[in-house]
Amino acid sequence: LTKLSEKRLIPDPIDPEAPGVVVEAIDEMDGSKLIDLMNTLTQDQEWDQYLLGHVRDFLAELEFDRASDLTNRIQNPVVRIGALTHIMVARMENGQSNELKVLRARARVDLDRVKDVDTKAKLLLDIGRELGFAGVKGEPGMSIGLVEGMASDSGDLLSKAGLHARIAVAYIDLGNRGEAKRHFASAQNSAGR
């Protein structure tokens, strides 16, 4: 990515006697180097974040199809889930709740690609929280329930403890101190105090 901001001085292509001309280094790259650069960008977290920023811009202009198309170009499943969450919230805010089913299915496909249990739980809770704020009935409760299921199914005590701690924080955000306390206790028990 540093190549994108790099400048280079070259001889003036029109008048060789004139002083040099400052150009962007990317202008002077041959085709193979340009292809290598583009391949690097397709696997780059910063590029995905850049695309996510433009997804938000499209949503601000209510250009849902363009936001969705750009989301498909995001390679990192975690970043793409974030983009899909933004699209779901924007659709809800604009009275298009009928679009949520397909968007949730797309997010579910990406969630299945996330192998880290803690990251997956965080994503589920984030989706639930955002959709709950946007007025989706049953959220964030449904998402919390999915993470509770993950905690019940976990054979690893440290993962189970981390999941219960995340659930507890989600309940604190909802103002449900009783459930939060219960899940913090479960986290402590699973971690062996």
3D structure, described in words:
This protein has helices at residues 2-5, 31-42, 45-60, 64-72, 77-93, 100-113, 117-133, 141-153, 157-174, 177-191, and strands at 7-10, 21-24. The protein has 193 residues and is mostly helical. It has a two-stranded antiparallel sheet with strand order 1-2. Helix 7 (117-133) packs antiparallel against helix 8 (141-153). The mean pLDDT is 86.
Q: In percent, how much strand structure appears in the residues? A: under 5%
Q: Low-confidence parts, pLDDT < 50 over ≥5 residues?
A: none
Strand order of the largest sheet: 1-2
Shape: elongated
Largest sheet: 2 strands, antiparallel
Instruction: State the end-to-end CA separation.
Output: 46 Å
- Write down the secondary-structure element order: HEEHHHHHHHHH
Number of distinct helices = 10
Number of DSSP strand runs: 2
Tell me roughly what share of residues is in helical segments: 55-70%
Q: What value does the average pLDDT take?
A: 86
Derived from helix and strand composition plus strand pairing, the structural class reads: mainly alpha
Write the layout of secondary structure elements.
Elements: H1 2-5, E1 7-10, E2 21-24, H2 31-42, H3 45-60, H4 64-72, H5 77-93, H6 100-113, H7 117-133, H8 141-153, H9 157-174, H10 177-191
Antiparallel strand pairs: 1-2
Relevant terms:
mainly alpha, single chain, 10 helices, two-stranded antiparallel ribbon, 2 strands, 4% strand, 193 residues
Q: How would you summarize what this structure contains?
A:
This protein is mainly alpha-helical and 193 residues long. The chain has helices spanning 2-5, 31-42, 45-60, 64-72, 77-93, 100-113, 117-133, 141-153, 157-174, 177-191, and strands spanning 7-10, 21-24. Helix 3 (45-60) runs parallel beside helix 5, helix 7 runs antiparallel to helix 8 and helix 7 (117-133) runs parallel beside helix 9 (157-174).
